[in-house]
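User: These chains co-purify. Model them together.
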Amino acid sequence: MLELRDVAKVVAGENHIHPTSLVLQRGTLNVLLGPTLSGKTSLMRLMAGLDKPTSGSVYFDGKDVTGVPVQKRSVAMVYQQFINYPAFTVYENIASPMRIAGKDRDTVDKAVRKAAELLKLTPYLDRTPLNLSGGQQQRTALARAICKNASLVLLDEPLANLDYKLREELREELPKIFAESGAIFVYATTEPSEALLLGGNTATLSEGRVTQFGRTIDVYRNPADLVTAKTFGDPPLNTIAVTKLGQTLEAGGAKIAVPAHLAHVSDGPLTIAFQPHHLSLQPRGAHPQALTVRTLISEIAGSESFVHVGFGDARWVMLAHGIHDIDPDTEITLHLDADRLMAFGPDGRSLAVPAALAA
Amino acid sequence: MEKTWNNKAWFLVLPVLVLVAFSAVIPLMTVVNYSVQDTFGNNEFFWNGTDWFTEVLHSDRFWNSLARNLIFSLIILAIEIPLGILIALNMPKKGAGVSVCLVLMALPLLIPWNVVGTIWQVFGRVDIGLLGHTLAALGINYNYTQDPTAAWITVIVMDVWHWTSLVVLLCYAGLVSIPDAYYQAAKIDGASRWSVFRYIQLPKMKRVLLIAVLLRFMDSFMIYTEPFVVTGGGPGNSTTFLSIDLVKTALGQFDLGPAAAMSIIYFLIILLMSWVFYTVMTSHDAET
Amino acid sequence: MARIDLDHIRHAYGAKPTRESDYALKEVHHSWNDGGAYALLGPSGCGKTTLLNIISGLLHPSEGKILFDGKDVTNLSTQERNIAQVFQFPVIYDTMTVYDNLAFPLRNRHVPEQDVARRVTEILEMTGLSDMAKRRARGLTADQKQKISLGRGLVRNDVNAILFDEPLTVIDPHMKWVLRSQLKRLHRQFGFTMVYVTHDQTEALTFADKVVVMYDGQIVQIGTPAELFERPSHTFVGYFIGSPGMNLMDAKVEGASAVVGSQSIPLAATHSIGSGKKVELGIRPEFVRLSREGMPVTISKIEDIGRQKIVRASFEGRPLAVVVPEGAEIPAEPRLQFETSAINIYADSWRVGPEG
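Assistant: Joint model of the three components:
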């Protein structure tokens, strides 16, 4: 179990990480999700012991390890760049941490072959990394990290430099590999879809702050605040500032009937938000709300279309199944599934979450 | 970035510390010792405070060699840096020509300094030297042992021949680190040859150029062997640079006290220059 | 803007290609329309960058000709071809201000300063860099630098074509959405001929009118996003486009039905396939429905990715992915149905069209 207690990092008077408390359990996959410079790498470095926190402490299995350098902890790391020993074969690369640990030949051999099998590297064991594709190089780095048998494995955007399809394949395999190992996995990414595909837990980061931590799908469905909801939006979350007056939400001239799950919210200014697939061409859900919008551009992505629209000053995206190539600057009527609305107060905190969906 | 503390590291740097202590600190302290005492032989020393320093700083001879040395450094910088850039820009970036060019460029750097001096000394002689003889045959009045201008030109040409390669190699290293995409983008943007140099190559070479200027300045400021071999500081005192002057004072006249004081002043000047360059370079880094 | 004709182009990096496999780019013979938006899509090493470099003039093809509006430009240099290009990593002139960076291609061509000001201001606004016009380009974030690169590509309106080499690689997901839709709007507005190289299917499909899918040095299909999705002409296209990609299973086709394991699946039409070929049935996960009726299936895993669920299942001993929209019910004892019109039949990896 890795525990961060009020860990903060200040560099040259700048807050890189605001005081953060997190508990990561053994055998779990934990995603750090946030844009570039949101503090993912800084937080990982603190977890690993590569940096010492300015304040707060780090506990591992109940023991205070704050300030214990990384080489004395049981940590493995995989980076965005493919880092392997260029002169070693794939086999020796995977074996290297165990050789340093002084394991005997048979143990090493068994572990290497098992990891190679898991990561589909068996045919390439005798090659050197530079004769491999990017995907195979990163698989080698992953195999080495797993073979190290560390209790904490940190992966810093490991798939970012790979082709789209290779990412998809590895992403599908990673949870299986994680499940086998029993270590704590921490995985940094900028992509919400990657977090959702990996599952596990997610901590969303914004400007050096962990805004929420919980089961990935729960954080996605029930964000605690607007920043978290936006961090998780891909396509971007649709938002609009409204004023609640009794049973209506007034937004840029249009009136939206207050759905049941927002009835308890007190009157006044709010921000409402909803996912792009909760906007549709045909009415959907029990309480559809028709809205007139102006189209900006349509993007067709095979099975679905992203239609960018303007509603008052707000810019939204509709994600619709099928192919909808709507001319720009056309007025159309879209339907908002009002039961799916999220509402945030002026301070950005969540006021109400949509009713649970059928599992 | 904060680093974790590791005591073992000190053991690893200990040998270097010992080496530096013997090679730099102890001799330096000896020189300081000499500079504040007078001796009349027999290992008898008398304290005489800052007298030597006052004497050196009031001597025309010191100021003349310092001025000579500064002018020399500025001239060779003004020639070697632009020439080095020009050659580096025209060197091939890939193919078989690269290694040929690099070897040719490295050649002068591989020759011992006194050999360089001897080569030029012979090369420039009017009676048997190829250069000197040819110039004389062409009716040009060239004789570095008699004419101060000829002596200066010889020393400068020799230094340029010897050291421009260093500037070339440094600039070349800076140039090859520029990704191809930059040149492609510039072509597509319709940039002229000058614009490519001004906006892509020069900014990318800036750091190595600063190092080149620093190295060449220090080296030329401390120049000794080559002019000593070729001109011996003459004719007259026309090529007596600081180091030569220093050696003349210390070993020629055996004035250990003034020589030690001069060494320290010399050392402080170089320290000051290094500090100025270092500050300029790091402030440039902070900007990026 | 110009029409681009690729006339029997082949390219090998080695000196004397003898076998077909020596060619990094196998024969390409196509015409690309003036004002079209094309995407070259494929995995690394498929030849897409080679083809882009041939168009931009950075590479001279081993064989064939390239024409802009009917004029042979094969032997012209990059400058003479009059194109703009945006690279994978930001290329900026560090020492210049943002404004000067954008003005650079115009000033090099001696455009009057008032026209420069007008164009640059337009581009600054479009890319959202107006606030930074006077700042030095050094020290900006990767996002901002790449916006400058994009801006420099768009600033001239007299170019024959604009080429993009994976321009959004270094951009954060949120910003990708913004930049992508801006590019698309620009294309609509000004009608540039654009060629966009990427390995990311979403970028390719959303950007382009026509997507050119490349695999192993050859073009396997050129089509609209809808065509590539619904009628992939090669199993590679089926796999590469869509996530998860198309389900493929070995099958026997008998008249108007396909046999997979012990199940017979009706087809929309009869297909005639020569003997001795490897026959596969392809169906996209989006067109498989889980319900109480249909063929038996075993579910092994359900991935809830928010707006939809990806169900990993086993059908007749073959792995099968199913996409289930948010809120849709997955029955306790599920059976499955294939949407007949969405089934494609492949022989030796190439699609076989229905007869008649």
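Chain C touches chain A through 46 residues (CB under 8 Å).
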